[in-house]
Amino acid sequence: MEATELAHDLWRWTGRHDETRTEVGSVYYKRGRDVLLFDPLLPPEDPHGFWTALDRDVLEGDTVHVLLTTPAHRRSAQEMLARYPGAKLWEPAAGDELPAGVSAHASGCPDEVVYYLPEHRALVVGDVVAGDGEGGLRLGLEADRRGVLEALDALEPLPVDIVIPSHGEPVRDAAALQALVGARH
Question: Which domain holds residue 160?
Fold first, then answer.
């Protein structure tokens, strides 16, 4: 398990997903009394340490929200919901009104969204886009190329400083997203 602070109250942690046998990323974001967990995975490498850290950050009166980019990323959602009374599950739907100023946008794939966190100008993506291992971005393995690139192109008005994929490293270069979208022209 590796946890990285991307910005104040914005963290990404990784864990080994038992079913896929791959390292996957999840995102923690706190704004006011809302704690948002995107595609959360309880890291099998250190579940106790994870719960200790999360319990320390979820204060009395906070509401925990579990947001999924896609139903395939249920991962440890039920454990998170069960641990915090009043926790809420958010299934993907573009245009839904979400907590903490977060917005959901079409991804170009059915049943999958990307989330935008305006406070940090961050885009949280599931399977449609991944880090390429060289500081850039690539399309996810099963992504419909044209649909995804059109959906990402529609996000152009949003100022994005960081893309946080579930697979691969976060990318802080806005030009990487523009380069990916530009690949369709």
Answer: 2-182
Residue-wise burial string across 124-153, b where 16 or more C-beta atoms lie within 10 A, e elsewhere:
bbbbbbbbbeeebbbbbeebbeeebbebbe
The pLDDT of residue 13: 95
pLDDT of residue 183: 64
Q: What is the pLDDT of residues 108-125, one digit of tens each?
A: 998 899 999 999 999 999
pLDDT tens, residue by residue, 42-87: 999 999 999 999 999 999 999 999 999 999 999 999 999 999 999 9
Give the CATH number of the domain where residue 39 resides: 3.60.15.10
- Strands (E) located in the chain: 2-7, 10-17, 22-31, 34-38, 63-67, 88-90, 103-106, 113-117, 122-125, 129-131, 137-139, 162-165
- State the total domains in the chain: 1
